[in-house]
Structures are given as structure tokens and as C-alpha cells.
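Sample entry (87 residues):
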Amino acid sequence: MPTYGYRCTKCEHTFEVFQSIKDDPISVCEKCGGKVKRLVFPVGIAFKGSGFHINDYCRPKKPGGNGEESSGAKSEEKPKVADTSVK
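Predicted structure, serialized as C-alpha cells:
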């Protein structure tokens, strides 16, 4: 069940309540009987795993050189293909 925060508009008493989403929001302060407002708390989101923001962040350089693969394997260049389009 989610935790909801409330603050009294009369005495400024702040409290939290575990409530179901289906429950009605609390409208009366448990301390003085004044009106209460529901508080909104910011929630942090962390996307983990491959595929999130792959173009936004650079990949860390591998140890042992200038950022190239340390296994000794070099990337092969693709052969250039002649342009055969009709102009």
C-alpha cells in the first residue's frame, strides 16, 4: 500500500498514512480537526539495463590504452562499394 503525506492547514501538523489507492483521502486533521491537504513527494526513477539512453552517455573507456579494445582484436573496415546508380 502507498504512503500518503498530509499537512493540516490550521495547525500545520504533518503526518503520513498507509492507505489503499481505493480509499478516500483524509480531510480532517487527527490532532486539531482542521482541514488537511495531501502532500506530493517527488520520486526518483533509475532506468537500468541495456537500451536506456544509449546515445546520451558515452561508454567508459577500457583500461590498457587509448580507448581501443584491449583484446588486441582490431575492427575490420568494410570494403567500399562502387556507386552503380544511374545518373
